[in-house]
Every structure is written in C-alpha cells, then in structure tokens.
Amino acid sequence: MSPKLINRLLLAPAGLWLLTMLVLPIVVVVVFSFGERAQAGGYVPAFTLEQYLNLPARWKAFQNTLTLAPVGTLIVLLIAYPLAYYLAIKANPKWRTLLLILVIVPFWTSILIRSYAWIFILGGRGIPAILEFFGLEGIRLINTPFAVLAGIVYGYLPLMVFPIYVSLERLDKRLLEASADLGSPPWRSFLQITLPLSLPGVATGCMLVFILLMGEFLIPAMLGGGKVFFVGNALVDLFLQSRNWPFGSAVAVALVLVMLVSVTIYMRAIKRWGNGRDDVSLM
Amino acid sequence: MTDTPDHISAKAFMAELERYRKGSVSRRHFLGVTGLGMATTVLGSAMPSLITRPAYAQGSIGDSVVLATWPNYHDPASFDAFTELTGAAVQVNVFGSNEEMLAKLQAGGSGWDVFVPTNYTITTYVDEGLIDPLDLSKIPNYDAASFDERFASPGTVNGMLYAASKDWGTTGMAVNTSQTNGRVLTSWKDFWEITQAEFSGRTTVHDYQLTTIGNALKSFGYSFNSVDPAELAKAEELLLAVKPHLFAITSDYQPPMRSGDAWLAMCWTGDAKQLNKDIPEIQYILGKEGGEIWSDFYAIPKGAPHLDAAYALINFLLDPAINYKEAMFHGQPVADARVNAMMSAEMMADPIIHPAAELLSALEFGAAATLTDPNRAELMARFKSA
Amino acid sequence: MRIYAIAVYLFLYIPIGIIALFSFSAGRNASEFAGFSVKWYGKALSNPFVMDALQTSLTVALISAIIAAVFGTMAALALQNMTGRSRAFFDALIYIAVMIPGIVIGISTLIAIVTVFGWLNPILVAIWPAEGPAPQLAMGLGTLIAAHSLFNMALVIIIVRARIAGMDRSFTEASADLYATPFGTFRQITLPLIQPGILAGFLLSFTFSFDDFIIAFFVAGSNTTLPIYVFSSIRRGVTPEINAIGTMVLSLSLILLITAQILLQRKRTT
Question: Above 50 in pLDDT, residue B50?
C-alpha cells in the first residue's frame, strides 16, 4: 500500500464523521435560518432575512455571554495556573498522579448535582446566613452574575488545570536549576523559562474554557434563576419554549460566527505574543 | 364495607404497602385497608381490573411507564402503589409550561406515555396530530357523568374524548405575610408594585408566558388572553421594568419560598396549599382584576411506547380513592364528584382550594390562540433574555 | 504554594462534601438535614430508572470515547503527513468541531436528524421487503453516541497531534534508517510516545460524554442518561436520592482511581 492510500484510510472514518455530524447539521441550520416559523411552531421553508433582522432582540444575551465568558475564563486561569504549577513542579512526584486525578474527580459527579450544591451554598441558608452572623445583612448571592461566575469557576477549573499541567510537566527542570545556579531570582526564571514554556497549555486551556462558556446553558439556568441569560439559554428557550426553529437557527448561526471571530482574533494575538513560535497554537 | 376506612395517611399507606410487599398481609387486606378495595367494592364491575383481570398481573403491561407532568403534582406514594399493583415503574418528567411540553412532542421521540396538558392546549395537540383519542374501554374509572362539565369539557374535541380531567385550579399569588409589614395585597397591580419596591429581589414569576404575560396584562385591566399588539406592548414595558427586581423566573418556586429567599410568587392553587400547610404565614391571594382559572388533563401522545401501561396509569390515577389521595397531597380541587364526596367539609370550604364564587367569576380560562401566538412567545423570550 | 493548593482542593471538595452529607439525611427535602439515614441509597439502588440511566450513560461514554480515541488517533497520524489544501480543509473542520458550542451541536443535530429521518422513513416504508412494519429511524442511543463522538474525536485529534508535534522526529527517522517497517516504527516508537496523549484524550472524552447534559437533552430521544435523569429530578423537587447517586458515582470512581494508583506504585517498586 502506498503511504498516500494508508493516509486516506486513516482519515476516512473521522472525515465521514465530520461530514455527517458536523457539515450536514450546519447546512441544515443555515437553511432553516432563512425560513419562517410555522403557525404552531417549527419550520416552514421560505427565503427571508426576517430572522436575522430580529437578532437585536437577543442583544442582551449576547452581551452577557461576551462579558461573562472572557471574565470567567480569566478567573479560571488565575486560579488554575498556580495549582497546575504546584502539581507539575512542586508536588511530591509520588503523589502527583493522585493529586492530578483528584482535580478531575469532581467532574465525575454531574455538573447538575454540583451546581445544585451551589444553590444551597449561595442561597439564603448558606453563605449569606454566615455573613449575617458576622453582621453583614441583606447580602444576596444566588441568582446573580456572581453566582453564575462561581459556578463557572467551579465547573471549569479542571479543564484549565490539565492542559497547563501537561505543558509544565514537559518542562526540563534542569533548566530551572541552571537558571538558579546562574544567580537568576525565581521570579525571573518563572517569567523567562516557565511561563513561556507553559503558554501552549494556557492557550489550550483558555480556548477550551472560553468555547464551552460561550455555549453555556446549565450554570446560568441553575444559578442565575432565569435572570442571567446567556445565548445558550436564549437558544434553549427558542427551541423548547417558543418553538421558533428559524429564529433559533439564526441565533445559532450568529453565535457560531461571533465565536469564530473572537477565537480567531484570540489565536492571532497568541501567535503574535508567542513571537511566531510554532508550538503556541492549537492547530 | 362500612368498616373500611375512607382514607388513610400517606405514611400509613406506605406502611401497609411495605407489609404487603413483605407478604405479611394479604392482597385483600392491603386493598381493603388502603381504600383501594373500597373503590373496587363501590364500583364493582366497573373496575374488575384491580381484583381479577389478568391485565394487571405483574409485568403484563411492561415494566415501565413515562409520565410528563408539572412540579409538585403527584403523591410519590401513588406511583409506588401503582408499581406494586402492576409491576410497572413510573418515570416522572417535570415541565414548567405547556409550551415546553408542546415543543418536546413536536420534535418527536419524547418517549412519553402519559402527559398532563392544560385545557386550552388540547385543540392544538389535536390539530397538530400529536395526541390520540382515549379508548374509554381501557379507562373504566372514567365516569363522564361525575365530572364537572366546566372543567372536563375541554378534554373533548370534535365529539371525541382526547383527555381525561385530572384537576383544576387558579393562578394567584403566594405571599409571605411575615414580610409585608401588615400591607395586604389584593391585586396584580399590587403584585407588580411591591415587587419594584419593598419586595425587590424577593419575587418569582412563572417561566410560562400564559400566566406571566397574562397577569401583567390583568394589572392594566386587559384580558388575560390578549394578543392585541398595543396591550402586549404595555405588558412588555411593565415586565421589563420589573425584571431587575425579580428573584427568579421559575415555575418551581416552592424551594425559594420555603427557604425564605423569595417572599412573593406567582403561584398555582396546589403549590399555595402545600406552602400554606407547612408555613401558615404564606397566604394565597387571587388578583381582584381576575386572572387564570384552569383545568389539567391526562392525555396519551401519539406513538406512546407503553400504551397498555399508559391506560393502566390513567385508570389507576382516576380511581376515586387514589385521586382523593392525590388531591390530599397536591392540594388542587378536582372535578370528579366521586372524589369530592370523600372530602371533608373543611377541605371543601378551604378558601385556597375553593375560592369564593365572586373571586372565581372574575377569572378567565386560557385561550388556544395564546399558545401558538408568535408575539406572546417572542415577548416572553425577550423578557427572559433582557 | 502548598497552602494555596489545599485551598483550591477545599473549594473543589466542599460542595461535594455537602452533597455527600445531605445524602444521609432522613428527610425528603434535600436542603434540610433531618436525621441520619442511608435509606436514600437503598432507594436509588432499587430505582430501575436510576440504574437504566447509569447504564445508558456508561455505554454512551465508553463507546463514544473508544470511537474517538481510535478514529481520532488515526486521523491525527494521517494529518501529520499531509500538507496543502486538504490538510487546511480538515484543520478547519476540526477547528469548527471543537469550537461549536454543545448547545448548537445539540440543536443542529436535532433539526438535521428530524429533517433527514423525515425523508428517509417514508422511503424505508416503501422499500421494506419483509412482512410487518418497516423499522423507523428515530433519535436514540445511536444519534447520541454519534453526536458525542464528533466533539470527542476532534478533542483526541488535537491532543494527540500536540503530542506528535512535541515528539522528537529523529527517533522515527533513526528507526527508518535502521530499516524498520513503517508499522514497526509506529508500534515501537510512535505509539509509546503518543500513548499518554491518546489516554488523556480517551479520559477527557469519557468524562465529557458522561457529564454531558445539553447535547443529550436534544438528541437522546426517549433515552435517559444520568444527567438527564438528575435534571428532571431536580425539577421534580430534589430528594436526597440525587445526592446519594452523586455520592455513589463519586466514591466508586475514587476507589477505582486509588486502587489503580496503589497497584501502579507497587508495580514500580517491585
């Protein structure tokens, strides 16, 4: 067999999958987004721009998503990085795997159950009751953007820790020792060696978390009380309440375009920042 | 049969069920003591299934049945009893609005056997070909004559029975009076006003366009069912102004009302009764401008995967003895005279369950047009995403 | 540093501790502790729907993670020898597959399936040769596994390729110089080097699939996965049964992991 044929065979299953489960649904959504809502809900074939012209009616949902997703990603990064650093460099190697796995274990209880725990923690009988005990009255946490952010950090921390850990783990520790031997202070070694080497992991982690946050539905639905509305919630609403498939399709198309644009900008920025290093990118 | 108790508590019922399961009491004793037997005696041949018909033998109707219903709407003990009798376990899926149920059925593959639609939606389900007429021969417990026409008639479309009456009720407000400083709410106008003032951050409204938009419309004196663009615009303006002051938009408001996070909720009869029973300060008020009166039904979606079990479940839940227990649990009034005959005078006079006639007369049933009206749907969606 | 790590672990495990604590409550209400009891564990274990949902979730997660690991690794290996337009095309598709939010995947797969099955089913009826009704395509486990595999496969491709990119080429070149067959090189050099990537991809895929709610919510048809069961239980009014399920799933995975860890350490020391 020629290498070319082998290559094609290797690629065939994934290619087939991408065509039927990705390209086809995208085509259908794009077609639907130019259609009209049937009387009782659903879709009627048509060609109209009405759905796209109606998009400003969901401006607030896009605005919420485009603020809380980057902010959430940043907070997750700030909390995850030191932990990944500790695990990859400082932790006792004997326990490293276990500690790493312990980061991902909470992931194995449904996000729903974990979010439910936060409803209790942030609800009137949780943290606000404790604060009240210390004289801080009338603090309300549940059903606020803060509650949604807390749920986001809790839900997505492992996804950030893992890629950063993987890139830090590959770091040759002799580099740090050498740097220290040459009299470089730890912070400088960190800035000049560790941080640049971990950038691919940071890039991957941020990308993963950001992407998932852009489509988030559950956390705002559970901890936002139907008040902190993401585009994901708007989409679920359009398909599962108002049964407006064409408008829902248009919102979905808009969401994907917004993501493509923001992620492309992000990757360009990372690439420039990484000074053309070929390993600082996802692809 | 005079020595058979009319009813027993859920706890005692479960204890009896446990004993029956362990085999320490006979089936006859179990049926007698729990009141299931009473129904069989009363109805005699009308209900042969419970005593002799092999159709109810273990496993013959399959081992499961899927019910789509509303929050806090059934006594879990009823389902345990059903499983005990038939061998079919009941899976309960909960929905917060008729729109949600309709959307799920329209998308297909819901997997439901029985669901609980509200009066005004049934014609749409029939028009869309989403439900089948009920085969009354499989529901011997359905006695058309004993149902109050006012609440049961929407189940009949084009002369055919598509849905069997479950119960009825009203949509009002539940208010925690320990937080009002003596102020008494009497109208939807009060509801929206206090939400924007003293109760800011303490009110919940339904995640359901019919009632949330309807009660906003009512506060201006418009029809609950209005689809007039100008009137809807006024309602939208009000809802958008209120939104920052809401605690949540949810149809499952019992948890925050119980925990004290919320003080005021747009509320259905049964939830009000359940809340009031445990927390007497929580009281139920009907808006004096009017609002919704509704009745709910059992219906079978087209292509229900466990059809026999679906009929068995509906028949079981309509058994007056079971229906009575259900009503004691969910606190909604029922339209079945056989069940009402079992109710204590106190229950029948309960102002939450059976409000005064003059309050009821101001209320409106939902209209079919509101379910499918694109403007109301879009208004609700805009309100939620604002 | 260590204190910080401890704080983060506390943050991760306190909510889980609360879930576990309430799973032992005797009351019906999951947010009030009313006496110690293990009855909800019995309830959960004897609830056929919980067991069904668990089984469905495990099946879907396992199958889609295996599909993703195998096909994804194959594609990653192939892509790395490719250049030019077809490579760019695949890259773009993979890029889109990870980028598209789960909710959009769920919705678009739903309407695509409804539409396509709507066309195919009458054809099936028309050409069905045997007696009796023709089988009808419907949403179910198949569609759910297919939808999960899409995202998982893209994930595996990216992770494995990152591993290949970080691999020292001189190994494979040396192997070729020593007249090893391509397959021999793959088996002895490439595979061991990319194995951690495949494993990571597999585990992430499994976790994603097991925890996914939103895609399943749209394309699982009448099947109930564990997250869907939990979601409808939460809406039904949470009883500590849900807490018990969560605690059991968690304890089971913890026990498995700790056992694996101990076994591995023992193997290393002997």
Answer: no
The answer to whether position B264 is within a domain reads yes
Count of the separate structural domains present in chain C: 2
* pLDDT tier for residue C144 given thresholds of 50, 70 and 90: very high
| Domain limits for position C176 | 54-237
Could you tell me if C29 and C75 lie in one domain?
no
Residues B173 and B155 in one domain: no
Distant-in-sequence, close-in-space partners of B206: CB < 8 Å, separation ≥ 6:
B96, B97, B171, B212, B249, B250, B251, B266
Range of the domain at B234: 169-293+355-385
The residue among A24, A30, A92, A109 with the most chain C CBs within 10 A of its CB, best to mutate, is A109
Q: Tell whether A249 is within 8 A of chain C (Cβ).
A: yes
Residues from chain A contacting residue C19 (CB–CB below 8 Å): 109, 113-114, 116-117
φ, ψ of residue B172 to 5 degrees: the values are -130, -145
Q: Quick one: C59 and C71 in the same domain?
A: yes
Are both B200 and B289 inside the same structural domain? Answer: yes
DSSP codes, chain A: --HHHHHHHHHHHHHHHHIIIIIHHHHHHHHHTTSB--TTSB-B----SHHHHTGGGGHHHHHHHHHHHHHHHHHHHHHHHHHHHIIIIIS-HHHHHHHHHHHHGGGGS-HHHHHHHHHHHHSTTSHHHHHHHTT--S---TTSHHHHHHHHHHHHHHHHHHHHHHHHHTS-HHHHHHHHHTT--HHHHIIIIIHHHHHHHHHHHHHHHHHHHHT--HHHHHHSTTTS--HHHHHHHHHHTS-BHHHHHHHHHHHHHHHHHHHHHHHHHHHHHTTT-TTSS--
C11 and C112, same domain (yes or no): no
Helices (H) and strands (E) in chain C, counts: 12, 0
Give the tens place of pLDDT for each residue, A169-196: 887 778 888 888 888 888 888 888 888 8
Q: CB count, 10 Å around CB of B148?
A: 16
Looking at the structure, do residues B222 and B280 belong to the same domain, yes or no?
Answer: yes
How far is the C-alpha of A6 from the C-alpha of A11, rounded, in Å? 9
Closest chain B CA to residue C221: B109
Q: Tell me if ipTM is over 0.90.
A: no
Beta-carbon count within 10 A of A144 CB: 17
Helix (H, G, I), strand (E, B) or coil at B183: coil
Dist CA B335 CA B167 (whole Å)? 6
- Asked if the structure places residue B3 within a domain, the reply is no
Give Cα separations from A30 to A19, A43, A250, C201, C245 (angstroms): 15, 13, 7, 31, 40
The CATH code that applies to domain A58-273 is: 1.10.3720.10
The predicted pLDDT at position B38 comes to: 46
Average pLDDT taken over every residue of chain B = 87
- What is the structure's pLDDT at A277? 54
Contacts of residue C236 in chain B, CB cutoff 8 Å? 71, 92, 94
N- to C-terminal Cα separation, chain A: 28
- B367 and B316 within one domain: no
Best mean pLDDT range from A90-99, B168-177, C76-85: B168-177
Residues C223 and C259 in one domain: no
Q: Please answer yes or no on whether C107 and A259 come within 8 Å at the CB atom.
A: no
Domain count, chain B: 2
CATH code of the domain covering residue C106: 1.10.3720.10
Smallest CA–CA distance, residue C126 to chain B, in Å, is 20
Mutate which of B11, B72, B94 to test chain C, going by most C C-beta atoms within 10 A?
A: B94
Q: What is the pLDDT of residue B15?
A: 59
Judge if C231 and C245 occupy the same domain: no
Let me know: does C104 contact C150? Beta carbons within 8 Å: no
Do both C27 and C144 map to the same domain? no
How far are the Cα atoms of A255, B184, C96 from residue A211, in angstroms, in the given order? 11, 49, 11
